[in-house]
Amino acid sequence: MYFIFRYERKKLNESFFAEAVLLDYHYEHEKEKPVVQGMPAPEYTVYAPVMQYETDSEVITSRYYMHLRTRRYKIGEKIQICYLPSSPELFWFPDEKEEMYKEYIITAVISVIIMIIYSIAEILA
């Protein structure tokens, strides 16, 4: 887990900034698992921004890798994004950098808890 976090941090530090234009939103309907068996599951629409931006060598049109529950930006709006020169079609919003770190930390903590529970179960068995 430490090495994944370290790799991701290095990747974030090697990113380039670009000004992108929001072309459209790709949307999907999703269902959550029902809270009570037999009850209808809640449905909602999620959105993935489709952005266009220019790198040093080409113009990229790409869809965001995550779906959002709301449309944060207006179509046609110019937004600052980050991308990797090695994979320019993958981008993210710089203001979400802290959220990405939180996800990695939460994943690491959950992994450690699972390992501890598994170890205790092995000792007691």
Please describe the structure with a list of short key phrases separated by commas or semicolons.
125 residues
Written overview of the protein:
The chain has 125 residues and is an alpha+beta fold. The protein has one domain (2-124). The protein is 32% helix and 37% strand. The protein has a five-stranded antiparallel sheet with strand order 3-2-1-4-5, with no helix packed on it.
Topology:
Blueprint: H1 2-13, E1 16-31, E2 43-54, E3 59-63, E4 78-84, E5 87-92, H2 97-124
Antiparallel strand pairs: 1-2, 1-4, 2-3, 4-5
Largest pleated sheet:
5 strands, antiparallel
- Output the helix-strand order: HEEEEEH
As residue ranges, the low-confidence spans are 1-5
The end-to-end distance, rounded to whole angstroms, is 27 Å
Shape, principal axes of CA atoms: flat
Strand content: 35-45%
Overall tally of structural domains:
1
Rg measurement, Å: 19 Å
Number of strands: 5
- Mean pLDDT, nearest integer? 80
- Biggest sheet strand order reads 3-2-1-4-5
Which secondary-structure class do the elements indicate? alpha+beta
What percent of the residues sit in helical stretches (DSSP H or I)? 25-40%
The helix tally amounts to: 2
Summarize the structure.
With 125 residues, the chain is of the alpha+beta class. The protein has two helices and five strands, in the order H-E-E-E-E-E-H.
